[in-house]
Every structure is written in C-alpha cells, then in structure tokens.
Amino acid sequence: MTSARTPRRTGRPGRPGYDLDSLLAVAVKVFNDKGYDGTSMDVLADRLGISKSSIYHHVAGKEELLELALNRALNALFAVTTEAGATEGPSIERLEYLVRRSVEILVAELPYVTLLLRVRGNSAVERRALARRREFDEFVSGLAVAAADEGDLAIGIDPHLLSRLLFGTVNSLIEWYRPRSSGSSTEIADAVVALTFDGLRRT
Question: How many other CB atoms sit within 10 Å of the CB of residue 81?
C-alpha cells in the first residue's frame, strides 16, 4: 500500500476572518453545490466575502483546495486500514470493522467524502484521488476474498461482488444522510452491519 500523498503546500498562517481549515470547509461546500468545474475563484471569493488575493494568501488556487479536501477524506479512510480492528483477527471481523468505521468516517467528514465520491478524473488531482480510491477498494476486496478462503462467507457469495455491494451501501449515505435528522453514526453503522453481515456470514 502506498503512503498518502502530501499536498504541495499546507497554507500559510491565517489572516483575520479565515484560517485554512475554515476556508477549506466553505470551499468544499461550494464545490459540492456548484461542482468543482463550475466554481471559479470569483465565486469562492464572493461566497467567503473576501478578496481573491486573501484566498491566494492561503493556497495557490482552487486546485490546491480540491487536493487538500480530497486528501482529508482519503487520509481518514486509509487511517482505518491501519487500526488494530482492520489488521488483526479473522478477515470477516476485520471487514465488518472496516465497514463500521467507514460509516463513522463518512458521517464525520460528510462534505469531504461527498466531494471525493463525485470526482471523475478530469484533472491530475482527481486522477490521483481516484487511484487512491482504487487502492482502498483493493484492500476491501482483499479482506472479502480472505474471509471467503477462511470459510466465513455464506456459500455462493462472490467476495469481489460483496466488497462492491458493501461500499456501495456505505457510499449511498451521501445521498440521504443529513446531520441531526438521520440518526447518529453509531446507529447507522449498526444498521448497515446488521443488514449486511447477518446475511453474509456462513452459519
């Protein structure tokens, strides 16, 4: 597994009104609302209520904001793959842990994961993000295959298809989950695990 790519810059100390994190949060909301390609620096400056030069004080441009946002989502997901729950014990339990923690990451980092799941590879930054997403998908698929080899999947379940279905379910949360009205991350993770793993485990 390759290491996470470090953004070219991390931003300079913030000016009054916005630091890099708060600027990034607003930029990600605009990217999700208007689409990255449909967002100009003028639009960002208008939404932030600051001049473009104030944005350039923090970053080189909107591409750097995109890279920072995508890496925030990806780094959170990849961090889970190194946790004990995802690296120790039977593969079926590691897979369940990964699904549960991925739900929690999606809820905690909803705007950033939403942006990640919407990129299409139209720029070098997006293509790097898609490559890392594929790497994460391969990790999930590897756990599913190992669970099948260990005899813990119900007979007839294709582990490669399983990994796609599991994370198709997790990723669908971006379409309907709304904070404060859709339940806690624990409640949602419990529901996803119950609906999926209760049926796929070999009994």
Answer: 18
